[in-house]
């Protein structure tokens, strides 16, 4: 099983869908158990993005928005979700990586954030295409320690969504999340106060050169 997983993770974007399904079903690498996706209309996405900017300290000069998905089941829980009183803080550190074949500059706007279980948090990542040609990439992610991934719930995220950036283009990409209060009840996470959310961008197998020739 391990050998198969290493082969998938080490491959190109063609392996990402398989990796995505494997992670969601097994929790491998700390990947969260994401609810079934539903298509979200663009106007609804836009409104949610506006709210995210209002909640954050994002610069006034907003960049173009990257593609994201919204987990409506998790979003519906926000109305009744409450932070656990007097609970130990959990520091979530954001890590960003780019494969050697992907000409992206990718980094978190904030290095870390401290939350308690049941408290929503928002983070922005910035991605810039440093080449002069269009490039399509996709980000995978994992959570460390892996067990924490079972309680790490994403409401909106950019992972597994194709991001096509023109030459020199830069976009903002949000991730809105919360840690399930049951995190504190798991004996295997007793004393754990640091969690890392790590993303890696890969260039897809799609070629943008043909589009350039047509323009």
From TrEMBL:
It is found in: Mitochondrion inner membrane. It is a single-pass membrane protein. Keywords: Membrane, Transmembrane, Transmembrane helix. InterPro entries: CtaG/Cox11_dom_sf, Cyt_c_oxidase_assmbl_CtaG. Its main location: mitochondrion. One of its GO terms (cellular component) is mitochondrial inner membrane. The keyword Transmembrane helix applies. One of its GO terms (molecular function) is copper ion binding. Pfam families: CtaG_Cox11 (PF04442). Exerts its effect at some terminal stage of cytochrome c oxidase synthesis, probably by being involved in the insertion of the copper B into subunit I. HAMAP family: CtaG (MF_00155). This is Cytochrome c oxidase assembly protein. It comes from Triparma columacea.
């Amino acid at each position: 099983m391990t050998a198969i997983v290493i082969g998938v993770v080490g491959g190109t974007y063609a392996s990402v869908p398989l990796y995505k399904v494997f992670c969601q079903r097994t929790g491998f690498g700390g990947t969260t158990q994401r609810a079934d996706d539903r298509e979200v209309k663009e106007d609804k996405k836009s409104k949610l993005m506006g709210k995210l900017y209002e909640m954050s300290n994002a610069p006034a000069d907003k960049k173009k928005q990257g593609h994201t998905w919204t987990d409506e089941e998790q979003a519906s829980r926000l109305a009744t979700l409450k932070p656990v009183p007097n609970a130990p803080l959990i520091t979530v550190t954001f890590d960003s990586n780019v494969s050697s074949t992907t000409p992206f500059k990718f980094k978190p706007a904030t290095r870390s954030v401290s939350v308690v279980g049941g408290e929503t948090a928002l983070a922005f990542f910035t991605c810039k295409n440093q080449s002069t040609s269009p490039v399509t990439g996709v980000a995978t992610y994992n959570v460390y320690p892996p067990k924490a991934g079972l309680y790490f719930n994403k409401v909106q995220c950019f992972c597994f969504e194709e991001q096509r950036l023109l030459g020199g283009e830069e976009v903002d990409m949000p991730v809105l999340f919360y840690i399930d209060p049951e995190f504190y009840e798991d004996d295997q996470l007793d004393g754990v106060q640091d969690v890392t959310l790590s993303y890696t961008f890969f260039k897809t197998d799609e070629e943008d050169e043909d589009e350039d020739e047509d323009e």
